Amino acid sequence: MIKKKAHLKLxxxxxxxxxxxEGKLGQSVGxxxxxxxxxxxxxxxxELDDKLIPVVExxxxxxxxxxxxTSNSLTFCSGLSGCxxxxxxxxxQDIMEVEIDQSINFDKILLKKLEVEMANNHYDILHGALxxxxxxxxxxxxKIVNKIIxxxxxxxxxxxxxxxxxxxxxLNREGEIGFNISLSHGIAGIVVFLSKLIKEKxxxxxxxxxxxxxAINYIDSQRLDDNYYSFxxxxxxxxxxxxRLAWCYxxxxxxxxxxxxxxxxxxxxxKSKAIDILLASTKRTSFEQTQIEDAGICHGSAGVCxxxxxxxxxxNISEFQEASLYWLERTLDFAEFDDGxxxxxTNMGGIWQKDYSLLTGISGIGLVLASVILDxxxxxxxxxxxxx
Length: 388
Hints:
5% strand
């Protein structure tokens, strides 16, 4: 019954994207927040209906032209590195091949930006060095990847006695500097990046393992006491705050980084820690304990559904499947706005708004629904650091 309801909602989202998308978002060509996220959603729908192939081909050509002519951003979230990454993903998965103007030296442009971000100690995956690094890692450019490894080694604060590696970053728009353990902008994201490098059999395995285990040790040190309903804080123990249930910040991202590290190192203990954290998270359902009020992937119910589904795929533990279906149902329930997109709006800083994007809007919600309906292996979630 729930899959039938999900299928009907998916068809609503498909028609909105297919008929109304063009020009509606308009602010970004990006993977997470713009055109290329919608393109990934449409490509996924081909698995359900190959009649959409001409639609996807039209949008891919249009968005690629827009990327080359108007994009000033180079980030993984909003710009060139994320868009080129997903085009390569399409080719790798035999989804489609998009021709790109070879007269433009994209690598040179992105390398220059990467060097600026590293010089500024801005490692953020969504908006900084490691997002661009994902592009070069995906290409297998070992020379540039080694530069990134050197950058992480040099920029880390190291406590040799406790075997801790940690990296400072900006914590807010006011420019406060500190340590952030989140998946989206912090050290959990570094852990997943390092795990990807180890899986790719980098010749720097000793350096990578040293940083990876040191980063895990730092995250371990940030664990809250039993007076809190989350295992880990929003950013670090310094603020002593409980964290919401979300992809972006909190226990789910930490649990995923432990899991990916455990997979990369074939470490049973790390995998067991991940399962403990994430199984406990399946029991958090009240608004007080989750702070979930919309359906988007970033901080909403679809992202929670996606993460628990990933863990069910990895472990075959029934509690993860049950939790995934619970949050699927909640995702469908959030389609409650008469003036929304297929009923959905996103709460951005207290303002409810229509949102077409992958990270916070209906393209991402649609991707999650499509994976559930297809009962697929969810390979696309690599772009959200959920698999390596």
